[in-house]
Amino acid sequence: MSWHEYLVLWCAVFGTWALLGYGLSLAGVTRAQRAVRVMGRIERVREPRHGSSQQDGIPVVVSFQDPSTGQELTVTNDTDHGDRINAAWTGREIGIRYRRGRPHAYRFTTDLSANRHGRAWPDFAVFLLYVGLVVLAAIDWGWPWALLGFGVPWTASVALYLPQSARTASRRIDALAARPPVQGRVVAVLTDTSTDNEGITSTGHTPVITFTTHEGTAVTAYCPDGLPDPTNSYGRDVTVHYTPEDPALFTLDLASEHRSRTSDIVFSALALAIGATTVAVGAVAVAL
Amino acid sequence: MPMRCRIRAGIDTLHTYWRSPGPGTIARVTITKGAPPPTRNTPVALARGVLTGGVIGASLAAFVGCVIESVPLCVTGVGLPAVYGLLFFLAGVPRRAREAAVPPRTALARIESLEAVGGEATSDVAVRFDVTVAQDDDIPAYRVRFTQHINLADLPDYRPGGVVVVQYPPDRLWRVRIVKRPTPEWEERAAGARLDPAPGPVVVSEPSAGCAVGLVTLLALLLAAAAVILVFRADLFDKDNSVQPPSSARPSVSSTSSTSSTTVVSSASGTVALGPGQSFLDKGELRRAVDSLTRGKGKDTGRALTVVVQERLLSVVFAPTGSQAPDFDPGSVPYERFPALVEEARSSLGIRSPKTWQITTDRLTGSLTIRVGVTGSDGTASLEADGKGEVVRRTPAR
């Protein structure tokens, strides 16, 4: 089979998969649509032990109610229960999802409405189908179509993303600077050692800080970046800027937030320029 | 039966029945004291063993396809285990779904002993626990061994005699797992509990597959591999025969039973390369090689511009038809004189340790000229001979 036939087969396979997936999603029978999604409430937070691993997240006790049976369940975040909980305080709401009838197989999630319609896999299939079609067009009609095929979506998505992300970054920085900062402390430094294939050991350190908001909420959170010399930061005092609506969004260094917003805008503009150039070159080459 | 025998029979094997939290199913598990756990030799396990062994053997042997350069066989060798693995996985989906639907049971357990086993240089240590799992109901406590990774910082929490919270699926009692972060209710119960160790060495472990299954798998593997090789033995062994054996020591009288020379002929040139141990100074070798190059060429196309001879390499450049360059008939060269000429060049031209020689024959000067060059550590020397093979000029080494 030549390349052409393989590509046609590729497009057919993923096109069928996408159609099937969207059909199932419309019918409402995908697993994601039938999953139970509830909000759980953190009842108790414990500080991680200094020197332990950061894999399992902050030790919390969460309670939620199974909507079908009305049963109240109390669970903890032991190993392998979905997203890692990086910031916790008593009363925080955290999303929990599980298959209907299996509350013991619960998984924590930070974004409860993710994949609410079960379209994640069909969307991915459409993406692969599109890649196949672009390659097919490039082989049949010439390379400028590859430039157009990849350049147009790239430029469109950057053009949509750029103003949105700039707005979000500004809002976050305003929120961080809205209230005066509070004092916090590093209560533990979590260590993880791993060896790769060549026997080289690498150690990662994750400091854990606690701070109390102006409203009196005691927050315990992982602080993977923003602390200079994290390895020896145990017991250090830190200044924390947090957003009043969600203390899980915080920073130790307001200036770096400004810097990262600027570099974000610069990189987006660069990506936009590259995309526009690609589209222009492709269009000109096609026209000629 | 006397009372004593009945009690002994009762102690030797405990059969327990209880209801699992599923929809009214009753699970029966045998907890045997001392005796090895029951083996599984069911027909399904045997059939699976045969299939697995057959697939592994056939795919290993199919790599023979890469030797005989048969692409479909090579691809089968890679594709067959992949497809089988996929089918195996899909066949296990209902069973796994069933197992996942059952919520695990939580219980308290007393650590009898723990020891670190193996492990890499990470912060997690693999620890083998020996615990006694206690139950709430009238199910007897049982002992079980399992291995779990524990972080170094948490290791002091686990001591022999300590009580921990464990979880296990109700239908597989041996799959016990320590719960590192129990709920507050279970934490309190673990803190206040005093557990007795289980009576005697009652150990629950996974029922192991029987000997028969392993034997059958091995047999199927060997048979499948043999079958594949048998089917393709013709291609395999023919290919071996086509590889020619190298010639042995250099014969003084050239025996022509098997030669390992390589001949390349085109319309413009011809080359003959001899195998190791042969030489163009051997009697008749040169004549034969030139004949093989000119065979099939007519009077016009078989005329040569140059003939170059080395120890094991002969190359002839043929004259293109209609060329004006002076050419000659390669068969008219006195090849029988070449060994003598080379010997004379080696000995009488002042080269102390001659290493290589080369004879170039051409007609550029108008008449056939044979130039013999010898190279040694001292330098090069040459002599010229005419069309009859008689020396006309010598150029000794400087």
Major sheet characteristics of chain A: 6 strands, antiparallel
**Oligomer kind:** heterodimer
Please state roughly what percent of the residues of chain B sit in beta strands, choosing from under 5%, 5-15%, 15-25%, 25-35%, 35-45% or over 45%: 25-35%
Rounded to the nearest angstrom, the distance between the terminal CA atoms of chain A is: 32 Å
What does the main sheet of chain B amount to?
A: 8 strands, antiparallel
Give the chain pair forming the largest contact, with residue counts: A-B, 26 and 20 residues
Helix/strand-derived class of chain B? alpha+beta
Helix content percent band of chain B: 25-40%
Number of helices of chain B: 10
Could you tell me the radius of gyration of chain B in angstroms? Answer: 43 Å
Number of E-state strands of chain B: 16
- In round numbers, the mean pLDDT of chain B is 78
Rounded mean pLDDT of chain A is: 91
Order of helices and strands of chain A: HHEEEEEEHHEEEEEH
pLDDT below 50 for ≥5 consecutive residues: which ranges of chain A? none
Write a brief structural summary.
With 288 residues, chain A is of the alpha+beta class. Helix content of chain A is 42%, strand content 26%. Chain B starts with a helix and ends with a strand.
What does this structure look like?
In chain A, 42% of the residues lie in helices and 26% in strands. Chain A is globular. By secondary structure, chain A is α+β, with helices and mostly antiparallel strands. In chain A, helix 1 runs antiparallel to helix 3 (120-141), helix 3 packs antiparallel against helix 4 and helix 4 (144-178) packs antiparallel against helix 5 (254-287). Chain B is built from ten helices and 16 strands. Chain B has helices at residues 3-12, 43-61, 64-67, 71-91, 93-101, 184-192, 211-231, 233-242, 285-294, 338-348, and strands at residues 13-19, 26-32, 105-116, 124-134, 142-151, 163-168, 177-178, 203-204, 262-265, 269-273, 304-309, 313-318, 354-362, 369-376, 380-385, 391-395. In chain B, the strands form three sheets. An eight-stranded antiparallel beta sheet of chain B has the order 9-10-12-11-13-14-15-16, with helices on one face. Chain B has a six-stranded mixed beta sheet with strand order 7-6-3-4-5-8, covered by helices on one side. In chain B, strands 1-2 form a two-stranded antiparallel ribbon. In chain B, helix 2 runs antiparallel to helix 4 and helix 2 (43-61) runs parallel beside helix 7. The longest helix of chain B has 21 residues, at 71-91. At the A-B interface, strand 3 and strand 7 of A face loops of B.
